[in-house]
Write a structure and sequence with these properties.
Order of helices and strands: EEEHHEHHHEEEHHHHEEHE
Distance between the termini: 25 Å
CATH architecture of the largest domain: 2-Layer Sandwich
Bound molecules: cytidine-5'-monophosphate
CATH topology of the largest domain: Ribosomal Protein S5, domain 2
Strand content: 25-35%
Number of helices: 10
CATH class of the largest domain: Alpha Beta
Structural class: alpha+beta
C-alpha cells in the first residue's frame, strides 16, 4: 500500500545495570551498557487523518490498545511539538513479551518517533527527538539510536559506543510480567556510580564477557523477590552447553545468555525449550545496524 512505512523496533538488553541514589524526581540514577538484538516488535505506519493504533501478534492480548499506550503518546507528542498537520495509523505487531525488561514499549515508541519524522517529513534535530523520547520514559532515548550505548542519568544520557562483538544471544522469559516501578520500590541497596570506564571497542566477545563479569544487574535481587522464577531461569541458562554469561535484563523477568556463535545459542534454545515449553524463548544475535 502506498505511503506505508515499516519500522523495526529491536529489543534492548541491559548487559549490566548498576543503580545509584534515588533522585528528587523519584527516579534513580543508573549506569548501564545497552545492546540491541535482531529480534523485536514490528511497526507499520500509514498516513491517516487522526492518530490511531491497532495491535496484533502473539502478545497483543497482554497489551490492548488503550489511549495510554506509550506508542500513541509518542505520536501525539511529536505532532504537538512539530505542528504536523497529518495523522497516522499505527499497526503494531507485538512479538516481544510485555513488561519484560526488554524495553519493548520503549523500542516501539522510539520506532514510531523515527518513522514519523520520515512519514510526516519533519525537520527535527536528534536532540529534539531525544528530548521527546526522554519525556516518554527512561528507556526511550537509548532506543532512538538502537545501537550499543552507555546509558546514565535516569536513562536520558546516552553515549553511543562501537557495536559489541558478534554473539549468539538467547532470550528467556518465564511469562511473568513485572512492573518496573515495583522492582525499583523493592530495591534495598544503592551503589556509587561513575567508577566504570569500558575500554571500547571490546577486542572480542571474551573481552566483553570479562568486563561484564565485573558487573551485575542490581535489579535482579528485587525482581527475584517479586518473581522467584527468575532464579530458576538464570540457573537453567547457566548450565546450557557453551554458555558464556547468564544475566537478567532491565527490571526482568527476561534473562539472557551469551554464546560465542548463533549456532550455540540455537542449540541451547532447543534444549531449554524441551525442558520448559511454557517459557518464551528466542534465539537471536546482537543487531549489527544502528537506527539513526
Ligand atoms: O520511565 P519509566 O516509565 O520506564 O519508569 C518506570 C518506573 O521505574 C518509574 O516510575 C520509576 O519508579 C522507576 N525508575 C526509576 N529510575 C529509573 C528508571 C525507572 O526509579 N532510572
Amino acid at each position: 500500500m502506498s505511503g506505508e512505512l515499516v519500522v523495526a523496533a529491536p529489543a534492548k538488553i541491559n548487559l549490566f545495570l548498576h543503580i545509584g541514589e534515588k533522585r528528587g524526581d523519584g527516579y534513580h540514577d543508573l549506569e548501564s551498557l545497552v545492546a540491541f538484538v535482531a529480534c523485536g516488535d514490528e511497526i507499520r505506519l500509514e498516513a491517516d487523518d487522526g492518530i490511531s493504533l491497532s495491535v496484533d501478534g502473539p502478545f497483543a492480548a497482554q497489551l490492548g490498545s488503550g489511549d495510554d499506550n506509550v506508542v500513541l503518546r509518542a505520536a501525539q507528542r511529536l505532532a504537538e511539538r512539530s505542528d504536523a498537520q497529518s495523522g497516522v495509523r499505527i499497526m503494531l505487531r507485538k512479538i516481544l513479551p510485555v513488561a519484560a525488561g526488554l524495553g519493548g514499549g520503549s523500542a516501539d515508541a522510539a520506532a514510531v518517533l523515527r518513522g514519523l519524522v520520515h512519514l510526516w517529513n519533519i525537520e527535527t534535530s536528534r536532540e529534539a527527538l531525544l528530548e521527546i523520547a526522554a519525556s516518554l520514559g527512561a528507556d526511550v532515548p537509548v532506543c532512538i539510536g538502537c545501537g550499543t550505548a552507555w546509558m546514565e542519568g535516569r536513562g536520558e544520557r546516552v553515549r553511543p559506543l562501537p557495536q559489541v562483538p558478534k554473539a549468539g544471544v538467547l532470550l528467556v522469559n518465564p511469562g511473568v510480567p513485572i512492573s518496573t516501578a515495583q522492582v525499583f520500590a523493592n530495591l534495598e541497596t544503592r551503589r556509587e556510580l561513575g567508577m566504570l570506564s569500558p575500554q571500547t571497542p571490546f577486542e572480542d566477545l571474551y573481552a566483553l564477557v570479562g568486563f561484564l563479569r565485573e558487573t551485575t544487574n542490581d535489579l535482579e535481587i528485587p525482581a527475584r523477590r517479586i518473581a522467584p522464577v527468575i532464579g530458576e531461569v538464570l540457573r537453567e541458562i547457566a548450565v546450557l552447553p557453551d554458555i558464556l554469561l547468564a544475566r537478567m535484563s532491565g527490571s526482568g523477568a527476561t534473562c539472557f545468555g551469551l554464546f560465542a556463535t548463533d549456532e550455540s545459542a540455537r542449540t541451547a534454545g532447543l534444549l531449554l525449550r524441551a525442558r520448559h515449553s511454557e517459557w518464551w524463548i528466542a534465539e537471536t544475535v546482537f543487531a549489527d545496524v544502528r537506527c539513526t
